[in-house]
Amino acid sequence: MALTNFNEDDISVSDVEYTTNFVIDSATAASARNIYSFVAEASSTGFLVNAQGSTTTTPLSSAFRHFTNYYFSSASDASIPLAQDNTTTTGIFRAIQLGRTTVDDGILSGSVTAIFSFGAVGNLQFVDIPDTTIDNSIGRKGTLVQKNDETNVVGTVFYDTGTLVFHGGNTSTNFLTSPASGFIFGEGSTAETIAINEVNFKSVNSIKRTSFFCRAKNREFNYTNNITALSDRTTGSITGSLTADPTTFITTIGLYNDDGEMLAIAKVSPAVKKTFDTEKVFSVRLQY
To answer: For position 17, what pLDDT does the model report?
Structure first.
């Protein structure tokens, strides 16, 4: 066993992103992915309705205040800006919250498509337009607009938390109707109901990789601390085959911090032969 210090040339750092496409087209699919839809209202004492159509014990007003303060940094608990002008305010919104295990490290910007029915009017599509800059503490966000009419701004998507908030829209396709009209997953809708026919998005899984290139030069790592190398444990004498031109086999590589604490361990398979005539380079990859 021996220790070798790393320099900058021995370490390589990279980031890899994987995306997964999701299509949520029913209450069952929403439940399986821990996705909820609900209405929130500033002054109501009613309760939230989840994606499966059952009520919770969380008041609408409580959820409204949470979104108001956290996502919109509003000074007022009773209102948030309308999506289309950010000046006029509203005391009601609808939201779709994606489960943490589904959204992973966030939603891929530009990947959201939602199809809704407004009463008898069905198959209206809405998409996201990502913001070009990040100017707040809640990370990346974008604007939700009607696909065939981008001037109809209906809400905001917060990519890092997997939250879609619908707080605006024009007369024919606005999300500011009475909370009694609900906001549920399903392929159809009845009068006075806003139904979520389908939501498509891609989640992002960001993986960091660090590769450590561990070098064993010809004069290094040619001996072993394994007790089987002792021919006599009492005197500490070494087996003859390890005294002149020894041959060892590297089986394990450990990564240590500056305090000598082991942080990670890697196994070599198969064991690698090492002599004074050979040099070896191992690439140990940490993925997290």
So the answer is: 77
